[in-house]
Fold this protein.
Amino acid sequence: SKRVKGTQIRRHFLIGNTAHVLPHPGFPDPPPDGHTKGWTVYVRPLPNGPDITTWLKKVQFKLHHTYADASRTIEAPGPFEVSETGYGEFGVEIRLYFAQESGEKAVYREHYLVLAPYGPDDQRARQERENKIVAERLETIEFNEPTQEFFKTLTSE
Ligand code: SLL
């Protein structure tokens, strides 16, 4: 498909994780031996933001090799997330796959899991009180000279 010359289209989304000390609702109780944390790693739209599944069709999360089936693939409509229990932090390798008509290769991101409270005293105190850690960041993807078909998909959201 022909490309739209001189055009870049950017989209925003979140990559992050939540984490809880176990036991916690939604996670196995009792947890597997030695597993102290429950966590969810995710690729999400911004709160109240537009749907990302128009352009994002598949996400592969590659976990630490200590996990059985370390490679987890989630197809649209998602949600693009993986929940697990464990004891340690590690970098999750994330591959984003786009709509077929985009002709775009998969894009790689890494998210280092945060399982322990972080930040200023008051923030750490709140994370402990609520037994909830959120570590996420705004991500941007730029499609340079998208195909005409993909341009149509992106701009008809
Ligand atoms: C390290 N950062 O490099 C640590 C590794 C390992 C994570 C963290 C349990 C996996 C399972 C788990 O939390 N693995 O038992 O399924 O040593």
About this structure: The chain has a mean pLDDT of 97. Helices lie at 121-130, 148-155. The beta strands are 8-21, 37-44, 56-62, 71-75, 80-86, 91-98, 107-112, 133-144.
